[in-house]
Structure formats: structure tokens, C-alpha cells
Specification:
Blueprint (H helix, E strand, L loop, with lengths): L11 H7 L13 E7 L4 E5 L8 E5 L12 E7 L5 E7 L7 E8 L16 E3 L17 E3 L21 E3 L23 E3 L18 E3 L21 E3 L9 H4 L7 E3 L18 E3 L21 E3 L22 E3 L17 E3 L27 E3 L14 H4 L5 E3 L1
Parallel strand pairs: 7-8, 8-9, 9-10, 10-11, 11-12, 12-13, 13-14, 14-15, 15-16, 16-17, 17-18, 18-19
Antiparallel strand pairs: 1-2, 1-6, 2-3, 4-5
């Protein structure tokens, strides 16, 4: 398509002379987007003539992180009366045109199989496209979405051009451990979130960045977690390892002092992992084969509030005295175990799940050691359904102890 200059516009020859501030624009055939603010919170994206000889101008939302080029020229496309687009320019920085600061947003480097929204130029969306390989990633990309594809490998160097990546979403692919290079993630010193759940991994990937804060490896086939798996990852706060085949994870947790959420549910654990990080806030151990708890295992946790042990093999003998009644827990799940009595719990507990056990007696003293104006249970939800109990088994003074309870299921 021929581009012709009109009044108030410049020719392509003039463009090359007047765009020293934007060297990308001087390349013939390059497709470059310029993002300008309009005072009325509207903006336009301009795409100079690309490789196919086409061009367009479209309205879009304002991108909040706009860099000012201080009065330089802002390039845009302006349709001529006969529909032929022409390249024009207006000064940035307000005035009668209403334009504000401008930002260059290159788009010519976005792979055809992905989407790089001009309103979010640091993100690349390649999800749900039946991709079998990691595509080329422009260096400006920080947020990479590759989930719901058919990718089976991540070779070393796959992210070499985009070492500033902050998020990588590659869940629900076909990744195997043999297909993931030993240094596939080693260069990503700014990586914050890595989602690899619902893949075919049999090992924790090697050389994970120490910058990681959120690592999700659930729904894989990981059986072993060696002690060095998370070495140096002092920033990791969320670790999801649920729905694997893990038998022990103890040694690997010592390297995670900042961990606040640990999910190792639906594995093959026979005991509570040792050396649990002291900053834990949520601990999920349901659907394992744990029959006993170590004495005082909750001591020293200043922030632990949510503990789930449902669907295990816990018995009364397997729970040492005072395990739960000296803690600051808010929610405790002991459902689907082999308990015959209500274990003593803290009066500060708000949610207690004991359904589907073998409990035959409602021992109110386990919930309230004494009852008066200031001493009572803070339970809001108490579930005892699926046991050998009925409403008739409630003691007469249960209403005083459980005065805050909104739900009692029996």
C-alpha cells in the first residue's frame, strides 16, 4: 500500500530524518507501536507500515506506566479521505492536540502464535494454543503465559533472551523432568512465580532461581524431594507439592525460612515432615497416611493459623496431650480419621472439623476447660457429623461454652 504525505504530515523520507529519538522507527518495514496518552483518558496505538504493507490505528485503554520522552515527536497513523493511511506526527506534551507523554511499544518481535497486548506490553499470552515448544520470547517480556498447551520440554536457553521474566505460567502442559534442562531456569534472577502444576514431572527442576516466592508443582509424579532441592531459596513463601507421590520432604524444608504456605496433601507421607519452617501460616497435610503426631510439633509457630489433617490415620493415642490446646490456631481439620474422642483444643479456635471419625461422646471439657463470663469457646463452626453422636448427646451447658457457634453439625 502506498503511503502519501498530506498537509500536516510528513513523508517516509522526512520520517527517517526526524526520528532520531526513536531509532526503531528508522528501519524500513519495521512494525512499531507508539502509545500516547490523551487528556480525556483515551489513547491511540499507531502501527507504521509493516511487512505486509498494512497499517491501522485503534483506540485502546490508557497504559498507566507511561514513560515521558519530553517533547519528542509522537508518531501515529492518520487515515486520508480516500482511506489511504499516511504517517504523521504530533508533538507530545499537551497543547491543542491534547497529547501527553509517549511510550514506544515494539510489537514486531511478538511471535505470531502469541498475543502481546499493547495495553500491557510486558506480557505475552500464548495459553491454550496447542503449542508444542516454547516460542521466542522478546526481551521486554516479564509475564509469560504458556499454560494449557502441549509443551513437553524446556531446553537450556529457552529463556535466554528474556532473563527479566517475573512470572512463568506453564501449568497444564506435558512437561517431563527429562525434558527440562538442568539450567533452563538458572538465568532468571528476577523470577517471582513459577507455575508447573498438572504436568508429568518426576523431579523438582534443578537450579531454580533464588528469587522465587511462589512455586507450584502440584499434580505431578514427584516421589522424592532431595534435601538440596530448594537450596538458597530464602525468599520462597508459597510451596505447593500436593497430589504427587512424595514419601518424605523433611530435609528440603530447612532451606525455606520465609515459607508461609506449605501444601503436601494427597501424597504418601507417613509422618509429619521434620524441620517445618517457623513462619508457616498454613499447613496442609490431608490425604496422607499419617497415624501419629510428634509431641510439641506446633510449638514455636507464631503465625500458624490453618492446619489440615483430614483423611489420615490419626488415632487418640497418636495425638500427644496439649497438641492443639496451646496453639493460636484458627482452623483445625481432623476429619476422616480414627479418633474416638474430641481432642482438647484452644478456646481461640474458630473452625473445628471432626466429621467422619469414631467419636461416641461429646466431651465439652475438650472445648472449654471452664465456662464463665470471660472463658468460653470462640468456635463458629463445629462439625461432628458422621460420628456416633446426635443432638441428644449435647451437654446442658453446651450453649454457654459454644455461645458464638453459628454452625454445629452432628
Amino acid at each position: 500500500m502506498r503511503v502519501r504525505p498530506v498537509k500536516g504530515h510528513v513523508s517516509l523520507d522526512q520520517e527517517k530524518k526526524e526520528t532520531s529519538a526513536f531509532p526503531q522507527l528508522s528501519r524500513a518495514g519495521a512494525s512499531v507501536h507508539i502509545h500516547c496518552w490523551i487528556t480525556a483518558e483515551r489513547s491511540f496505538l499507531s502501527d507504521p507500515i509493516g511487512a505486509q504493507g498494512s497499517a491501522r490505528t485503534e483506540e485502546c485503554k490508557v497504559f498507566p506506566d507511561v514513560e515521558s520522552f519530553g517533547g519528542q515527536q509522537a508518531w501515529y497513523l492518520s487515515p486520508v479521505g480516500d482511506g489511504t493511511p499516511s504517517i504523521g506526527c504530533r508533538p507530545c506534551g499537551g497543547g491543542a492536540t491534547g497529547t501527553g507523554p509517549c511510550r514506544q511499544t515494539p510489537r514486531g518481535d511478538c511471535p505470531a502464535e502469541c498475543d502481546c497486548p499493547p495495553t500491557f506490553p510486558v506480557a505475552m499470552y500464548c495459553d491454550s494454543r496447542s503449542l508444542q515448544h516454547v516460542p521466542y520470547i522478546p526481551s521486554r517480556i516479564k509475564y509469560l503465559y504458556l499454560q494449557h498447551n502441549l509443551i513437553s520440554s524446556i531446553p537450556d536457553g529457552a529463556f535466554h533472551n528474556a532473563t527479566g521474566l517475573v512470572w512463568i505460567m506453564m501449568h497444564q502442559n506435558n512437561l517431563s523432568s527429562d525434558g527440562v534442562g538442568k539450567r533452563a531456569f538458572a538465568e532468571l534472577g528476577s523470577l517471582d512465580r513459577l507455575y508447573l502444576y498438572h504436568n508429568q514431572l518426576s523431579r523438582v527442576p534443578a537450579n531454580l532461581p533464588r528469587s522465587l516466592r511462589d512455586l507450584r508443582l502440584s499434580h505431578n509424579h514427584i516421589a522424592r524431594v532431595p534435601a538440596a532441592s530448594f537450596s538458597g531459596m530464602a525468599n520462597l513463601s508459597v510451596l505447593l507439592l500436593n497430589h504427587n507421590g512424595i514419601q518424605d520432604v523433611s530435609g528440603a524444608l530447612r532451606a525455606l525460612p520465609a515459607l508461609t504456605l506449605l501444601d503436601v496433601s494427597n501424597n504418601r507421607l507417613r509422618k509429619v515432615p521434620e524441620s517445618l519452617p517457623g513462619m508457616l501460616h498454613q499447613l496442609y497435610l490431608e490425604s496422607n497416611s499419617i497415624s501419629a503426631l510428634p509431641g510439641g510439633f506446633l510449638d514455636g509457630f507464631l503465625k500458624l493459623q490453618y492446619v489440615r489433617f483430614g483423611h489420615n490415620l490419626l488415632t487418640d493415642r497418636g495425638i500427644p496431650p496439649n497438641t492443639f490446646n496451646n496453639s493460636g490456631l484458627v482452623e483445625l481439620d481432623l476429619s476422616y480419621n480414627l479418633l474416638e474422642h474430641i481432642p482438647p483444643v484452644s478456646t481461640q479456635l474458630e473452625h473445628l472439623y471432626l466429621q467422619a471419625n469414631r467419636i461416641k461422646e461429646f466431651t465439652l471439657s475438650s472445648l472449654c476447660s471452664r465456662v464463665d463470663v470471660v472463658n468460653f469457646s470462640h468456635l463458629k463452626v463445629l462439625r461432628l457429623d458422621g460420628n456416633a453422636l446426635s443432638r441428644e448427646d449435647l451437654p446442658n451447658d453446651a450453649a454457654l461454652c459454644l455461645r458464638l457457634a453459628a454452625t454445629i453439625e452432628m
